[in-house]
Amino acid sequence: MITIKLLGGAKKAVGQSHVILDRPFASIAEILKFLKENAVQSKILDPNNILIAINGADSTMLYGDDAIVKAGDTVTIVTVVHGG
Q1: Which of 7, 31, 52, 57 could bond 78 through an S-S bridge, CB–CB 3.0 to 4.6 Å?
Q2: In angstroms, rounded to a whole number, what is the distance separating the alpha carbons of residues 83 and 77?
């Protein structure tokens, strides 16, 4: 199982602080698709406005949306706050 922690706006979008994905592996793209399909406010999960970490490492350093997450891994998703 893969643990997905949701912080800030991502938590608001999905309606809970974490989700368990009962799969042996999944790409970041598959995880985002799953979350958007089950989100209360899917627009908040815009890939241009979120940061994703896999076991604490920025997913962009691990092949971005193509990064593969395995059972036992933790994905953390947080929305980026823009100021004006």
Answers
A1: 7
A2: 19
